[in-house]
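During the no-cost extension, the postdoctoral fellow (Dr. R.K.) reprocessed legacy sequence entries with the updated structure-token encoder. One reprocessed record is reproduced below for audit purposes.
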Amino acid sequence: MARKIEIYDTTLRDGSQGLGIHFSVADKLRVAQELERFGVTYIEGGWPGSNPRDIEFFAEARKLKFKKAKLAAFGSTRKKGVRAAEDSQVRGLLEVHTPVVTIYGKTSALHVREVLRCTPEENLAMIADTVAYLKSHGREVVYDCEHAIDGWKDDPQYALACFKAAADAGASRIVLCDTNGGSLPDEVAACTRAAMSAVKAAIGIHTHDDSGLAL
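Re-encoded structure tokens follow.
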């Protein structure tokens, strides 16, 4: 059976963070149409909670009627101590009416302790609650595991628990992010194999070229 490879394009969000890059709404709409023609599977349009321009983009993009690509809104898991339904940022992801919502969350046990300042169990609940809430509103959910490779190298069992929390709550894709861009190909491959063995959801990777290893 032939394997299917999907392309999840982040040009309109991650790509806009490059030095000297400033997309207007019209720019983003033109890029989205070209990505549709190119045949990518997912187009990440931006983060509705970050700026009014992305909200305007999603409103205009709804008129384009993509035939191949699925448009995704990007955001984060709920805050600690707040129900997903009460988190304004999470609700904002539903308000732009994309078929796909991509959320990111912590994978590194170190970051859970030092950045979120919550328990490992609370972070797992934040992941699962947010995915389940978005799924209950009819969205396909892609889960971006922030610092997945570094987190897995530091504490593989906790990283796998994060992957499973998202998958068990209904995420269709679990994306392993090499957020710092410092992992070597064999490390990314090992983490990917571990994730594929641990969850039934499709596995993706999101890497950066800080080490100069891109093809």
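Strands lie at 8-9, 42-46, 70-76, 100-106, 140-146, 173-177, 202-206. The first strand starts at residue 8 and ends at 9. The remaining legacy entries will be reprocessed before the final report is submitted.
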